[in-house]
Structure formats: C-alpha cells, structure tokens
Amino acid sequence: MRAIEAELLGCLPDLRAYARSLTRNRHDADDLVQDAVLRMLNSADRYQQGTNFKAWAFTILRNRFLNEFVAKRKLTQEMDDSALERVAVSARQDEGLELTDFQRIFHSLPEDHRSILALVAGSGMPYEDVARILGCAVGTVKSRVHRARAALFALLEEEHAGESKETPRFHRSTTLEERRRLCG
Prior knowledge:
This protein has 184 residues and is mainly α. It has nine helices and no strands.
C-alpha cells in the first residue's frame, strides 16, 4: 500500500490539473480528485505492480468524472487562480493573446477536446498512456489531438482576426513547450 500512496502523491498535481480541465471549477475538481483517490485506495489490490500507475490513476479519475459530473451536469465556467497559472501565457508586453481570452476560448472547446489537450499538452503524457486512459488506439489519440489543436487554433485565430498588424497573434509556430503551458 505504501508504494501506491507514494505514486499517488507524485501524480496528484497532474490529477488535479486534469480534473480542473474537465470540470472547469476548482471545487468540483477537488471533489472529483478526492473521490478518485478514495476509489484508487479502495481498489489498490487491483493495481498491477510494474504497470503504468499514472495511466491507471487518470483512467479512474476520468471514469469518475464521466459517471458523476457529466451525469449531473455540474460543469460551470468558474476557474481559480492556480488553474489559470497552468494555462498562462508569458507576461511579455508583446503577447497578443490575453490570459482571459485564452481561458474563455479553451473552455468553449467541447469536453473531449479539452480533455485530450489537458492529457497530452498539459500533463505531457505520452500518446500510449493517453490511449490506455481513454481506452482507444494510439492513432485515435493522435487524430483527436490534431482535431482538438486545430479547433483551438481556429478559435484563437478567429478571436484575433480583427486585430491590427502591430498586435502579435497566437500562431501555429508556437513551440511545443509554449503549447503545453497554454493548454495545461
């Protein structure tokens, strides 16, 4: 049991970030994580040592979300400051995308797009682990990530289409690290 507790503590920040991307609300995310952690501890005997603990934990969290939060439609637009930091762009003056703009646009994406971006870009999980969590093929994960990123970029571009040429915009040339920071 101690090994599972140590592994759980190690992935708790990522679980909380993922839960926040799903629920869009700090309080609901905390409730979801607590519920999932209890489920993990109660079913610790089902975890097979040597397998990917993080994928197992994220799968339980996602299933709890699907069973509880989607069914109850408790999703809201609220997001706290610590979650905002995970999607923040750098504070340079020449940034054309405001954090509040990104937050609004990111949360306007469908849940499946937000979820896949949070897992891949936000948590930095390999496609193979995400495929295990979602119960699909790696190729399916890749195509979903592509569609989610395309939808996000389209919304970002649409948001800033009317800006002057002096105002920099968010472009597809943004580095992978910046994308992870933005979508996390």
